[in-house]
Specification:
There is one protein chain. The protein is of the alpha+beta class and 126 residues long. It has one domain (3-124): Pnp Oxidase, Chain A (Roll), CATH 2.30.110.10. It has 3 helices and 7 strands; from the N terminus they run H-E-E-E-E-H-E-E-H-E. The protein has helices at 3-9, 47-54, 83-112; strands spanning 12-18, 24-30, 32-34, 37-43, 57-62, 74-80, 117-124. The chain has a 7-stranded antiparallel beta sheet with strand order 2-1-5-6-7-4-3, sandwiched between helices. The radius of gyration is 14 Å and the shape is globular. One of its GO terms (molecular function) is coenzyme F420 binding.
Amino acid sequence: MTALDRLGEEKYLLLTTFRKDGRAVATPVWVVRDGNALGVWTAADAGKVKRIRNIDAVTVAPCDFRGNQNADPVPGHASIIDGEATAHLRDLLKRKYGVAGRLTLWGSRLRRGSDGTVGIRIVLDE
C-alpha cells in the first residue's frame, strides 16, 4: 500500500503548513483521496489557505480528531483549487463521511455561503 493509499483512507490528517518565517502550523483536517492527490476542505479565510498561497510545501500525517499524530509525516505540495474542483471535493467528502459530512457541509454553506470554503489539493513527494 502506498503512502497516498494509506493517507487517503485515514479519517483525519494532521496538515502542517509553514509561515513565512518557517514556523510550522499543524491542523487536523478531514481528507479524501482524489485521483493521484489528497483533498482537504476548509474555510476560504483560514490561515492555512494564506500560508499555502505563500509557501506550498506541506506535510501530512495520520492523527486523531484532536491532532495527536499517529505516524511519521509525509512531505508534499499543496495548492488551492477552483470552485468546480472544490464542489467535486465536497461530493467526495459527503460520500466518505456520510451523515456527519453532509451536516457539516450543509452548516458551513449556511454560515459562509458556497464561496466561503475552498478545497486544497495535496500531491505527495514520493
